[in-house]
Amino acid sequence: QVQLVESGGGLVQAGGSLRLSCSASGRSFKNFAMGWFRQPPGKEREFVAARGWNSDTIYSDSVKGRFTISRDIAKNTVYLQMNGLKPGNTAVYYCATDRTYNYKYAASYGYWGPGTQVTVSS
Asked: Which DSSP category does 15 fall into?
């Protein structure tokens, strides 16, 4: 059974940094894309970043230059380094995985973690 577990969320002041981790288990994810999405309070889930099995990397415009996604295929783990955090980045952050090239679309991912809360104070 595929399982994704996020960690690393928490409370941070504006301008600070957090590093999220997502550990996947249950099968080989070597040919799977892994992505990060977030859902701010009262809003819909939105794409943040993704890394394909072939190391393609894509970011939303709002986080480009501040967030970095990386992946350790051997450990089935994907990371999201978040620098320069803003109050508007407050959200529940989810990781997702599937065999897809449609990295930006939540519907393309069949496997999701439960999410981790990130709160950025002003």
From this structure: T
**CA distances to 12, 28, 39, 88, 89 from 48, in Å:** 18, 23, 10, 13, 10
Q: Which of 75, 33, 25 is nearest to 53 (CA)?
A: 33
For residue 86, what are its two tokens? Answer: 């803003």
Note the pLDDT of residue 49: 98
pLDDT surpassing 90 at residue 102: yes
CB 77 within 8 A of CB 71: yes
Give residues with Cβ within 8 angstroms of 60, minimum separation 6: 46, 47, 48, 49, 104
Q: Measured on CA atoms in the order 85, 38, 20, 105, is the torsion positive or negative?
A: negative
- Three-state DSSP class for residue 69: strand
Instruction: Give the whole-angstrom CA distance, residue 98 versus residue 37.
Output: 14
Per-residue pLDDT of 41-98, as tens digits, reads 999 999 999 999 888 999 999 999 999 999 988 888 999 999 999 999 999 999 999 9
Helix (H) or strand (E) run with residue 107 in it = none
Pairwise CA distance, residues 68 & 79, whole Å: 8
